[in-house]
Write a structure and sequence with these properties.
Family: Belongs to the UDP-glycosyltransferase family.
Structural class: alpha/beta
Radius of gyration: 21 Å
Helix content: 40-55%
Distance between the termini: 19 Å
Keywords: Glycosyltransferase, Transferase
Shape: globular
Oligomer: single chain
Number of helices: 18
GO molecular function: UDP-glucosyltransferase activity
């Protein structure tokens, strides 16, 4: 890695939810492991979830650091220590958490303006960061933790609105333009997609516009997992959003000492006794997520989950083939981060694209 690449500074801004933070922090560590300077912006409590992993990276010589903010618990009406979605227990607390995250916006903006990085990588739920990036004259990468398939489905439904052509909530319709024939019913769509929730529909439009204005999209996936949909997403969304930079980097970290560090890498984000507390507190179909989908009942009840688990773990030909396919995908996931693998190549392409953008805009050396 030459000195120019080491001078590139990327600031990461994960959303305050473990499912969003985990892959973003992994991606930040991947970039740091490839010679870039990386800073992760988060709150004080959330920083403790991955500080040990970051400290190990620093000791190994990687240029990675944390920029922490105090979460405005009092201003948001939350108890101290409630700083991410896993710590909320009611829809009301979740709404207050969202408000607290909004209160952080000017403070995050000040950090970005102070450090003036070469690139901002932010969760897609922070659409306002694209305007900060434009103001600073740097690229913004939108991180999306979803896979290619569901984004292709969402994009098709948004463009073609096929659910408006059916006469009932239970009538099946084909989602057009996909590599495979995919059918669904109107009743299976959340209100945000059907346009029946004005607040979330407006937010969804804002997220899409911010993605269109961004330099590119970071995907938490790998090509071999869903190749047809990776190609489809790159083609359709790249053209529509006026950018073709979509990197499927994934979240798998390769350790310098894989045998000794594998367990630490898999549970670096878990606070002490988190799993026990989760088992005791969070029911199937946790009603916290009703805030997102505006559902009146749990999305999936435990009987359906039990049935699905029994099918997968059974002795039928279908179950055996499912497990074989899972093993094949696991091998692909390992291969994709090896030299010449798709995620390894996408990571190198990402670094080169950031460096090219920096030099093309005449930003000179990083601060």
């Amino acid at each position: 890695m030459d000195s120019e690449e080491k001078q590139i500074h990327v600031m990461f801004l994960p959303y305050l939810a473990p499912g969003h933070m985990m892959p973003m922090v992994d991606m930040a560590r991947l970039l740091a492991g490839n010679g870039l300077k990386v800073t992760i912006i988060t709150t004080t409590m959330n920083a403790t979830l991955f500080k040990n992993a970051i400290d190990r990276d620093i000791k190994s010589g990687r240029q990675i650091s944390l920029a922490t903010l105090r979460f405005p618990s009092i201003g948001a009406g939350l108890p101290e220590g409630c700083e991410n979605l896993s710590s909320t227990t009611t829809p009301e607390m979740t709404l207050k958490l969202f408000h607290g995250i909004e209160l952080l916006q000017p403070h995050i903006k000040m950090i970005l303006q102070k450090h003036r990085p070469d690139c901002i990588a932010s969760d897609y739920l922070f659409p306002w960061t694209v305007d900060v990036a434009i103001e600073l004259g740097i690229p913004r990468l939108a991180f999306n933790g979803s896979g290619f398939f569901n984004l292709c489905v969402a994009n098709s439904i948004d463009c073609h609105r096929p659910h408006n052509n059916v006469t009932s909530e239970t009538e099946q319709f084909v989602i057009p333009g996909l590599p495979d024939k995919v059918t669904i019913t109107r009743s299976q769509l959340p209100d945000i997609v059907k346009g029946e929730n004005e607040v979330f529909s407006a937010l969804f439009d804002k997220l899409k516009e911010a993605e269109r204005k961004s330099f590119g999209v970071l995907m938490n996936s790998f090509y071999e997992l869903e190749p047809a949909y990776a190609d489809h997403f790159r083609k359709v969304t790249g053209i529509k959003s006026r950018h073709s930079f979509i990197w499927a980097v994934g979240k798998i970290l390769k350790s310098d000492n894989e045998d000794n560090n594998l367990d630490r890498q898999q549970d670096w984000w878990l606070p002490e006794e988190y799993e026990d507390r989760l088992k005791n507190r969070v029911p199937v179909g946790n009603e916290t997520w009703k805030v997102w989908a505006n559902e009146e009942s749990p999305l999936i009840n435990r009987d359906k989950i039990e049935k699905a688990v029994r099918i997968v773990m059974g002795d039928t030909d279908e179950a055996i083939e499912m497990r074989k396919q899972a093993s094949r995908l696991a091998e692909f996931a390992k291969m994709t981060i090896e030299e010449g693998g798709s995620s390894s190549n996408d990571l190198k392409a990402l670094i080169e694209d950031i460096r090219t953008y920096k030099h093309a805009t005449g930003r000179g050396e990083s601060r």
